[in-house]
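// run 5 | inverse folding | seed 20
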């Protein structure tokens, strides 16, 4: 309670705060504060061409932020909100500035499934823009400590460890066809089931924020597909290398992914070797995890 009031005060003073969500922690500012939004980019050292996601606490608020809200939006919001789905919709220029969307005509909207995040947005009375609370290109934070470590001087609402662990699925529309731009734990199958429509997946960038390298810890990550023919790595490679077998359960793998990067990154290993099976690599529910892992990895032994 006290945390929320202090955070609201900070937001009203045009500051940024650390915000817990079910995916990863966000670095939030009030969407009506130009100074606050500018501070997000400055604090993260994020280039202005990478647009921010706007977090809302009600569907009503989402409708106000967008120009078009159709039946598909209703279906998606009813099924997945609050939850890890970001909807890209044409923006309402009166509420959503070009600074937030990097000049794009669309805005990313999401209702986080976290009690404290929803309480904060509701009490503030305005949506908050929030990218993940990490320095640009670095590993996203899944606990309040991770955020405090990166940004010691900002106020962080401690909402515990994130239950999902990787960022939301980003979904937009092209001529009414649903398109996933960033895979996450809500899969294309989940969306197809909800809308009764085919979904396209385009992991290639429509926004420049989707860079090839992202989420990287300091220690290089090596990705390794394990098959019956897999040979052991040559001994000169394995000295001081740490191995992590990706958990078989996708929800658990996602929840642990970034915290594992961080934990192993602190131990002065020469490399982090992450192994997985072909079944995992091809499974729909692992798509978001491999999207992050591929961007975080320096070497991919599967290729
Ligand atoms: O789970 C999440 O989505 C987390 C939590 C904090 O909500 N947020 C997050 O934000 O991952 P960020 O800024 O780290 O990643 C947002 C991505 C960026 O790659 C950006 O390019 C893309 O969303 N994005 C934002 N607005 C967009 C738009 N209008 N069109 C296309 N892509 C957009
Ligand atoms: Mg991010």
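// decoded
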């Amino acid at each position: 309670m006290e945390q929320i009031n202090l955070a609201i005060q900070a937001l009203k003073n045009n500051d940024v705060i650390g915000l817990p969500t079910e995916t990863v922690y966000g670095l939030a500012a009030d969407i009506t504060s130009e100074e606050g939004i500018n501070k997000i980019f400055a604090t993260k050292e994020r280039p202005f061409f990478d647009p921010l996601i706007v977090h809302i606490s009600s569907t009503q608020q989402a409708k106000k932020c967008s120009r078009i809200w159709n039946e598909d939006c209703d279906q998606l919001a009813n099924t997945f909100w609050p939850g890890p789905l970001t909807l890209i919709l044409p923006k309402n220029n009166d509420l959503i500035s070009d600074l937030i969307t990097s000049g794009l005509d669309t805005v990313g909207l999401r209702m986080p499934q976290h009690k404290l995040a929803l309480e904060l947005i509701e009490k503030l009375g305005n949506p908050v823009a929030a990218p993940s609370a990490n320095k640009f290109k670095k590993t996203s934070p899944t606990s309040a400590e991770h955020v405090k470590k990166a940004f010691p001087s900002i106020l962080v609402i401690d909402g515990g460890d994130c239950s999902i662990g990787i960022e939301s699925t980003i979904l937009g529309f092209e001529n009414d066809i649903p398109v996933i731009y960033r895979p996450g734990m809500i899969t294309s199958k989940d969306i197809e089931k909800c809308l009764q429509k085919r979904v396209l997946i385009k992991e290639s960038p429509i926004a420049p924020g989707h860079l090839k390298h992202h989420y990287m810890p300091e220690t290089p990550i090596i990705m390794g597909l394990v098959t019956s023919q897999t040979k052991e790595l040559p001994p000169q490679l394995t000295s001081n290398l740490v191995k992590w077998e990706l958990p078989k359960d996708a929800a658990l793998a996602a929840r642990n992914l970034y915290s594992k990067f961080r934990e192993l990154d602190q131990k002065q290993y020469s490399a982090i070797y992450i192994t997985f099976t072909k079944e995992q690599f091809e499974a729909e529910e692992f798509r978001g995890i491999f999207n992050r892992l591929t961007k975080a990895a320096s070497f991919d032994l599967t290729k």
